[in-house]
Backbone:
């Protein structure tokens, strides 16, 4: 792990943190919801009652968060090889849509009261104190939850944190509305309820939209994608990259990339470079959780120039038999598929070759005869042993 990088908690540890934070929030929401509904009813404040419904909805979303976090903590299995983190994404989408529905209900009720001025009542001063207490409590919950959300990189927990913040802001609107009503403008309180409903709808819509983007495999933002690209190109041996694809998965990112290396490298060295790319990305780019690296000898983004070429056995039937027929021993034949052609490295033991030119001449004749096999060239190597 790179210096300064934060450790990533395992699934169970992650769930324990989410559970602790959510239970604290649920307890506060329970007290606030009860206080707002009771005082809003006794104090004749439609805005505070709307705010109380908002806090009550927080209790339901806290339950959704706990259930989703429990399922998302399950390890990967055969049916879910990428794990269960998208349970969080689905739950976050449901949370956002639920907030929109709550907002529609509150807004409709407020609109009805505005159309019936005789139903408007002047709130009591106690409403202001309850709303002020809610602002302090919910702002504290927002900061407490957001710290853990950033630590876990949990979109679901971050959504719940912003839900707390919106509740604090809506309580500020309640204070303004109730204050205006106490000054002799009773419709202020109802307008405040309508404003609260719009705020809740906006918050819920944004939460649902971001989660839906993850469900349809939206990639990383341009800034994060640029960090991924730069990190890959910094790895020694990577000549270029193409077909870089990313997608988010439960607040983390998955990366697929094709890297281009020297076509004459061994398979093991190409694999080593690919593994280095994978490790560097997971260490240097915080959001990256897994990387799939495809090693290419050339750029095949637009098309695969060698897809029509025969595989090893068919090529060797044409080449190796001719070497044996000429009485020239061969230790090894290596095939290179490049630019729509096959290039061969033939390794001949120097101690058993009486005429060096004979092997070179045979290689040239085989290239000419192998045009139909798409042989582009044969390079003879002499081994000392």
Residues:
């Amino acid at each position: 792990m790179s210096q300064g990088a934060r450790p990533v908690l395992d699934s169970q540890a992650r769930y324990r943190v989410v559970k602790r934070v959510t239970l604290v929030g649920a307890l506060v929401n329970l007290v606030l919801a009860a206080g707002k509904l009771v005082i809003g009813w006794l104090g004749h404040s439609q805005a505070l009652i709307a705010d109380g419904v908002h806090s009550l909805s927080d209790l339901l979303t806290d339950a959704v968060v706990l259930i989703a976090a429990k399922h998302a903590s399950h390890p990967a299995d055969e049916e879910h090889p990428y794990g269960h983190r998208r349970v969080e994404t689905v739950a976050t989408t449901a949370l956002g849509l639920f907030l929109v529905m709550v907002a529609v209900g509150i807004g409709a009720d407020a609109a009805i009261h505005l159309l019936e001025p005789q139903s408007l009542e002047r709130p009591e001063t106690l409403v202001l104190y309850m709303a002020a207490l809610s602002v302090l409590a919910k702002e504290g919950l927002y900061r407490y939850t957001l710290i853990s959300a950033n630590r876990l990189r949990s979109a679901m927990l971050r959504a719940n944190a912003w839900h707390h913040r919106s509740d604090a802001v809506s309580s500020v609107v309640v204070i303004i509305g109730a204050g205006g009503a106490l000054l002799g403008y009773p419709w202020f309180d109802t307008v405040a309820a309508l404003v609260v409903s719009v705020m809740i709808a906006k918050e819920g819509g944004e939460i649902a939209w971001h989660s839906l983007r993850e469900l349809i495999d939206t990639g990383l933002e341009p800034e994060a994608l640029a960090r991924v690209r730069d990190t890959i190109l910094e790895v020694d041996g990577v000549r270029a990259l193409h077909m870089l694809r990313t997608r988010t998965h439960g607040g983390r990112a998955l990366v697929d990339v094709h890297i281009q290396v020297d076509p004459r490298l061994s398979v093991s060295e190409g694999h080593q470079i690919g593994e280095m790319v994978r490790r560097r990305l997971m260490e240097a780019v915080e959001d990256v959780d897994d990387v799939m690296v495809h090693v290419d000898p050339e750029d095949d983004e637009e098309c695969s120039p060698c897809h029509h070429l025969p595989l090893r056995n068919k090529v060797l039937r044409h080449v190796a038999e001719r070497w044996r027929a000429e009485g020239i021993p061969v230790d090894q034949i290596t095939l290179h598929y490049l630019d729509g052609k096959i290039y061969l490295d033939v390794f001949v033991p120097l101690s058993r070759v009486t005429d060096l030119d004979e092997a070179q001449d045979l290689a040239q004749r085989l290239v000419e005869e192998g045009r139909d096999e798409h042989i582009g060239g044969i390079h003879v190597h002499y081994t000392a042993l």
User: Anything to note?
Assistant: DSSP finds ten helices and six strands in the chain. Residues 243 and 257 are 6 Å apart (CA to CA). Confidence is low (pLDDT under 50) at residues 1-7.
